[in-house]
């Protein structure tokens, strides 16, 4: 067993050609290391047959296109810890893998004030095409990686890496990072405690978003399987360059190593979800 180490009237959308575009990036690691790292919004790339979804390229470079800094942080953590990682390669504006297939926001028509022209009149056929071509392959890769890791006898915990924009609708968000979670407290409570030991950090507990979202990535692969998990949101100005990514890698890697040594995080336990009873989200 390995341990962790060192946008007028709608027009018909033509059928998309079956061009080659791999929607998933996988990083090899030790299947028995006890940790899988995920990055749902890693890149702002689009297949050639989708162009820029009718957007100026500058819009895709904003936070609406992807989670700035999340991919390099994921890659550096995977390399430092010898852990497997699974990342998307497509913009969240094409389809959002961190949503359930029936979620109306799985394909965004407007995002932070930007109208996405090629999403404005998307029909069910095109929605399903994107699910089949991009969304499902990512989740299949996550599921296959987890199956392979579980087959070693070492139950993995899941760490999902996201980032958030420093300013939202004119409001400067105060947190340096936030930990998102639903009902299973095992990993998030310990991660929060570890981050808060640094008095210079403002750490949000289910901020700037709430971690209970039915059929999102964590629900699908962690809650449903009873795997310990946590999602971190790091403010994008803190990981927008190589120095910031290196700093946060150095901060998070030892914490994840310590968490990996806790046997309760490698036991299947079913806590359910707040979304199982929508009244609990009020």
TrEMBL record:
Keywords for this protein: Hydrolase
GO molecular function, one term: hydrolase activity
Cross-referenced SUPFAM superfamilies: Zn-dependent exopeptidases
One family name in Pfam for this protein: FGase
InterPro entries given in the database record: N-FG_amidohydro, UCP029730
UniProt-recorded name of the protein: Putative N-formylglutamate amidohydrolase
